[in-house]
Amino acid sequence: MGEIKKHTITEPWLKLSCGLGEAPFWEEQTHTLRFVDIIKQELHTVDLAKGPASHKIAASLDISIGVTGDIEGHDKGFIFGGKHGYGIFDRETASYKYIKKVWSEEELSDGKDKRMRANDGAIDSRGRFWVGFMDDPLIKDPVDEGVLFRLDPDRSLHRVLEGVTIPNGTTWSADDKHMYFTDSPTRNIYVFDFDAETGAISNRRVFFRWAENLDAEPDGHCIDEEGYMWSAFHGSGKVLRISPEGKVVAEITCPTPNVTCPAFVGEDLVITSAGGDEKPETMAGCVFKIHVGVTGLKRFRWKSGIETV
Description:
Keywords: Metal-binding, Zinc
Structural class: mainly beta
Cofactor: Zn(2+)
Helix content: under 10%
Low-confidence stretches: none
Oligomer: single chain
Active site: 219
Domain SMP-30/Gluconolactonase/LRE-like region: 20-274
Family: Belongs to the SMP-30/CGR1 family.
């Protein structure tokens, strides 16, 4: 086993106090970073050409957004997984509209639309948007009633996985033959066989299990151009680089235990975090950035027949 490369971040890139910073996303066409604060229901942006001083809260919303994705052919808006389902956010008006709500009439009667919310997800190579929904911890402690949904380009909605507790980190291997998915309280990052043509997943098994610190668990992750995974482990302050064989090869230590999600901006890794720690020196709720010398896999766009956004 080779030596694990270790890196330490000592200062924040953005000194913020996010309640739950998540979903960092590099908009390559405008060289902008966007991310959300799920708890405070905010959308944040940074003009990367100008740096941290350009940070702004682009929208304060009446719903939480957990994850976002770009839309093929429509740069003035993006798709999101939000409180009640899938929606489109309009950058020009800072407004949104739902395009597909996820719960059945029976589930609405059971109150799922009130106690649950979107958390994480991603768009696959065929333009399908996968989003996991979970119990909102502000309302109810999460239990295994969460669901991983898939919205196809024809706007058909599919329930892919049920019995999930906290869905996180959804990505695909460089050869598009495998899908990775995290259910955080299990401390497992799973891998499935993936059929890119149909979107079917099968043969679930454990890709990586967190066993170092039982107060921590895997959160969001991303894949680099070499096929290695970079996963945040909430509660540990660490982001690990994990080989396709499931071996840790590098470790980033951040000055807060509450790391949530990494994302690539060129050869830099941006890392969001959550609040909840009363010690200011831990920098909980800040955003961090570090040069890692490798780029991320291409982000795919949701394919849609939308005429206007």
